[in-house]
Amino acid sequence: MLDEILEFLGGQATPAAWVDEALQQQELLLLDHRILEYKAAQTAMTLMGRHLMRPELVAKMSRLVREELVHMEQVTRIMLKRGIQPRALSASRYAAGLRELLRPNEPQRLTDTLVVGAFIEARSCERFAALAPHLDEELGRFYTGLLESEGRHYRGYLQLAYLYGEREDVDATVLRVRETDNHLIATPDSQFRFHSGVPA
């Protein structure tokens, strides 16, 4: 799965400098991770609402919503156990940067949204794998356990993109989004977040 995901991401692995920063900023890492799980569920709910007549999409997004909310609850429990109280954080540039690529009209917007969703899930999976070996036993085990579900979410989004979109357009969209993903995670970033770039 990880080889497949790294190939999908164009071979651009998370920079070691980000991993080093994450290990020093574990409170921020968990705070942002919790928010991202909620946002992932929220995005899936929005997709369902807009495409209720697409049963394959509804089935995958319904399962994804449930899983992401469970993950949010799990992160919250870990945080509270470590004395970390939930608080608001500003959003990272990553998801916003990818969503700038969305075309305004359907069906192209659905294709773009699904491909962006695949990249967010794939990048999350790759970062869990990069972090897990360096974390304490509890958090390392938790992040390793998330690899399967995040990988399934990436595949689900991509399958839906090819189901509802034209193959050539989906292929072109993957290349376009990959270029932006690679740029955002490999260039200097002024704030640390789960999907941030190289620490400035």
UniProtKB/TrEMBL annotation:
Entry-linked InterPro entries: Ferritin-like, Ferritin-like_SF, tRNA-Hydrxlase_MiaE
Protein name per its UniProtKB record: tRNA-(Ms[2]io[6]A)-hydroxylase
Any one GO molecular function term: tRNA 2-(methylsulfanyl)-N(6)-isopentenyladenosine(37) hydroxylase activity
Species whose genome carries this gene: Pseudomonas mangrovi
GO biological process: tRNA modification
